[in-house]
Amino acid sequence: MNSIANLRKSYERAELNEEASHADPMAQFVQWLNEAIAAQVPEPNAMTLATVGSDLRPSTRVVLIKGYDERGIVWYTNYDSHKGRELAGNPFAALQFHWVELERVVRIEGRVEKISAQESDDYFHSRPLDSRIGAWASPQSEVIASRGVLVTNAARYAAQFLLKPPRPPHWGGYRLIPDAWQFWQGRPSRLHDRLRYTPSEQGWIRERLAP
């Protein structure tokens, strides 16, 4: 029987060094994201979001990045969901991108805030109709009796709103404002490249960490 402990991979695709990396972590992130998209890795926009509740227990889930700029990283969700409730009590979170095929990981930490209602409205109305109806139909993170509840809800809201569902008041965007970044590039012999960016008055401090 094969043992999971014996699963190993040699990382040899690329390197990450101080001279070739960007001084601004957002620029480095955008470069890597664009390279992941160009490489057609599966769901390059998928990221793990970690939050911590009032009971100090961490929880994670996968969400999709829907925007970025100098202010931070944006995604959308139900504000009444488990993650939404945790962020309401503790607005600090962490994100992680893992582009397996490129042997790369990006970790981002910071404070989370809701984006403006106008930004949420603009994105909501750009979504496919079934996704807009779905935002109304799913009481995210709540216990439901069966999938039939979702189907019934979707039919009810589709009949109510027809082709113009408004954005639900419980649905919108969050922005994580980074105060720490890490970029990890797999290298042979487990001597991986790992760069950390932390803010300073002059900009960002870039340091190499042991893997």
In short:
The chain has helices at 25-38, 82-89, 117-124, 129-137, 147-161, and strands spanning 46-52, 58-64, 67-69, 72-78, 92-99, 104-114, 171-185, 193-200, 203-208. With 211 residues, it is an alpha+beta fold.
Folded structure, characterized:
By secondary structure, this protein is an alpha+beta fold. It has 2 domains: 12-121 and 169-208, Pnp Oxidase, Chain A; 126-166, no CATH class. It is built from 5 helices and 9 strands. Strands 1, 2, 3, 4, 5, 6, 7, 8 and 9 form a 9-stranded antiparallel sheet that branches. α4 crosses α5 (147-161). The two termini are 31 Å apart. The model has no long low-confidence stretch (mean pLDDT 95).
Level-2 CATH architecture of the largest domain: Roll
User: What is the straight-line distance between the termini?
Assistant: 31 Å
Secondary-structure element pattern, one letter each? HEEEEHEEHHHEEE
Count every helix, treating DSSP H or I runs of 4 or more residues as helices.
Answer: 5
